[in-house]
Amino acid sequence: MADEAYLFLLPAGLPRLGAALGSVGALECAETPAVRGWLQAHGVSASSELVRVVPAGSGGLIPEDAERLPIPLSSVEEARVQQECAPSAVTDVEAELLEFRNATDGWEALVQRALTTGIPAPRIALLTGLDVREIARLIQA
């Protein structure tokens, strides 16, 4: 299945593909008998740098001769795996986007509070960088 996440053993001599299982934090599936049995059958521990994980849709990155095991991931785990697999430039920008989302959560309530305290819409636009039309939309709501 192309939309499954995978654990795989990195064959010797290949560049580091995916993320080391130990670097993505605890995954619920790592405690299942299937994963523990798979690791034991291959004589590796979960902390080995050779045990790699790729997110759903990335199975094509796994070398053909690599031992692999499809695994289920929650959406939070999937995001962690994707972030760990992403080049650092992508990861840095994604972190900035998350900061932006967190900083802008509740912006409408903040603007409403500002309007209620008497701060004029043009001043709010100047201080926040918001479009005056967005502020006007809130006034009309």
Descriptive report:
The chain is of the alpha+beta class and 141 residues long. It folds into 2 domains: 5-86, no CATH class; 106-140. 45% of the residues lie in helices and 11% in strands. It has 6 helices and 4 strands, in the order ββαββααααα. It has helices at 33-41, 75-85, 88-104, 107-116, 121-128, 132-140; strands spanning 5-9, 19-20, 51-54, 68-71. The chain has a 4-stranded antiparallel β-sheet with strand order 2-3-1-4. The termini are far apart. 18% of the residues are buried. The model has no long low-confidence stretch (mean pLDDT 88).
Shape: elongated
Pairing-aware structural class of the strands and helices? Answer: alpha+beta
The tally of helices reads: 6
Rg, rounded, reads 23 Å
The biggest sheet amounts to: 4 strands, antiparallel
Q: Calculate the terminal CA-CA distance, rounded to whole Å.
A: 47 Å
Number of strand elements: 4
One letter per element, helices H and strands E, the order comes to EEHEEHHHHH
The total number of structural domains is: 2
Arithmetic mean pLDDT: 88
User: Could you name the ranges where pLDDT drops below 50 across 5 or more consecutive residues?
Assistant: none
| Largest sheet: spatial strand order | 2-3-1-4
Oligomer: single chain
Relative helix content? 40-55%
Portion of residues in beta strands equals: 5-15%
